[in-house]
Amino acid sequence: MTDRNEGRVQPSAAGETKLPAMTLQQQISERSAKVGVIGLGYVGLPLLRVFWDAGFAVLGFDVDPAKIQMLKRGQSYLKHLGDRLVADMVEAEASAVSSQPSGDGGHAAGALQTAPRFDVTDDFSRLGEADVLIACVPTPLGQHLEPDLSYVEQTADAIAKTLRPGQLVVLESTTYPRTTREVILPRLEATGLKCGEDFFVAYSPEREDPGRADHSTRTIPKLVGGIDPASSEVAVALYRAALDEVIPVSNTEVAESAKLLENIYRAVNIALVNELKRVLAAMDIDVWEVVDAAATKPFGYQPFYPGPGLGGHCIPIDPFYLTWKAREVGLPTRFIELAGQVNHAMPEYVVERVTWALNRASKPVNGSSVLVLGLAYKPNVDDVRESPSLELIEKLLELGAKVEYNDPHVPATHKMRNYDLQMTSVELTPENLATYDCVLIATHHQAYDWQMIADHAPLIVDTRNATRGVTGSRDHIVMA
Questions:
Q1: Could you write out the three-class secondary structure of 254-323?
Q2: Across-strand partners of 141?
Q3: pLDDT score at 7
Q4: Which helix (H) or strand (E) holds 479?
Q5: In this predicted model, what pLDDT tens digit does every residue of 61-74 receive, in sequence order?
Q6: The listed CATH number (3.30.110.40, 3.40.50.300, 3.40.50.720, 2.40.50.140) that belongs to domain 10-98+111-250
Q7: What is the DSSP letter of 231?
Q8: What is the pLDDT of residue 82?
Q9: Can you tell me the distance from the alpha carbon of 460 to that of 442, in angstroms, rounded to the nearest whole number?
Q10: The pLDDT value given to residue 65
């Protein structure tokens, strides 16, 4: 069993003392620190690769054994990041092992091999092996839009079991202000070790945007705030060793709040154009043309575009973390809550438009066949988290429609927190399109040939303005 006090003050060769912060910063500088990443999803897995690229030994943790086995085989389940994301690390590891001398002179074969620089595991008893632990775990909402911090709490408890002097713990999961200080820190200090002296704690919000080509984990500016100055200094040094730009802030609360502000800003502005879409549609005005026209102003305006609802892990969820926390200090968050109401109502509006379009064709929703194009929440990725397409399918099924979907990036659905559709993507051909009473465009993937779709689908409901470039008759296209 590890003595938690062991290493609190480490004597140097000259008889001086070397504090854990000094030791860890030196390890970071020398790339001898091992970086552990907890949660190997859309945030954690690319982060693991970035630190590996920077020369660190990395150790990934995930509760899903199937993911661990795929990663050990060099396979990535995040297709939008490319096949080489994991394969490069696995192949480099295999090459390093094969190039090592086998050993002789009574030594066991392989005794001279260096420690692996890439490893993944579902064994959380190994958390103590890492000098740095970065938690990238989910922070969903409960049934009543309350924060669910169970994954954060479980992760902190697991880290506490093996916490040792000199370790840095960083939370990257999006959450409400003071989570790091009020939820993570007490669990770690219950071990008897003291933050800022024995170990270090910081918060650095993830800013991933799956599918984006102009920025990556390495190039997106990184905010970092520590519980105390020592923690900030160590955490900033860590991220600066692997990322292009690191921006220190005064504490964890500022970093936590900045992440929420980023997503609340988007949620409120998307709600604005979603509300405008409904009003302008009633006036027979094209909201997309209006947005593009406003965007010609070179200052004081940033375009946001309407859609069938919000998707992804950030915008539909994160604003409600601040709403919940604000009640603790007795203050309302009217803008946030109103934006949430508008955005959450969009799937219902889309279904109303589908109903209207079918009625215009003398067909009821009940018994009609509907093909939903796009299951992912955004173009050109396989990410279906909180996708409005899931709710659209469920609502149409409840009304008696026969619903199928096509998505070139999502061949089949999987069981999720709130959905288990048990569906597979159908083939998209001119002949198949002609058999549906309605084609509902929910995601504007680049792989789709919109002209072909418009030429063969008898009725289209377009929530993304994907058919704007279609030529020929548009009488069968309804905007939603």
A1: HHHHHHHHHHHHHHHHHHHHHHHHHHHHHCCCCHHHHHHHHCCCCCCCCCCCCCCCCCCCCCCCHHHHHH
A2: 147
A3: 41
A4: strand 477-479
A5: 999 999 999 999 99
A6: 3.40.50.720
A7: H
A8: 82
A9: 11
A10: 96
Pick the closest to residue 67 from 96, 40, 37 (CA basis).
40
Task: Output the pTM of the full model.
Answer: 0.87
Largest distance between two CA atoms of the chain: 90
For 82-141, where are the alpha helices, taking DSSP H only?
A: 84-98
- Is domain 347-480 given the CATH code 3.40.190.10 in the classification? no
- Where would I find the beta strands (DSSP E) of 69-175? 118-121, 132-135, 168-171
**What pLDDT sits at residue 143?**
77
**Count of CA atoms in the C-beta half-sphere (13 A) of 3:** 4
Identify the CA nearest to 132 among candidates 205, 36, 7. Answer: 36
- Kindly state the tokens that stand for 230: 């020592």
CATH of 258-344, one of 1.10.472.90, 1.25.40.10, 1.10.1040.10, 3.40.50.300: 1.10.1040.10
The residues of the chain that CATH labels 3.40.50.720 are: 10-98+111-250, 347-480
> What residues have CB less than 8 Å from 259, skipping those under 6 apart?
174, 205, 206, 207, 223, 318
Task: Please state the φ and ψ torsions of residue 452, each to the nearest 5 degrees.
Answer: -60, -40
Helix/strand/coil percentages in the chain, nearest 5: 40, 15, 50
72 with 123: CB under 8 angstroms? no
Verify whether residue 195 is a known catalytic residue. Answer: no
Tokens representing 471 are 């030529």
Query: Which residue numbers in the chain have pLDDT < 70?
Result: 1-19, 99-114
DSSP label at residue 199 = B
Residue type, position 67, single letter: K
Separation in Å, CA 226 to CA 44, 205, 222, 439: 20, 12, 13, 50
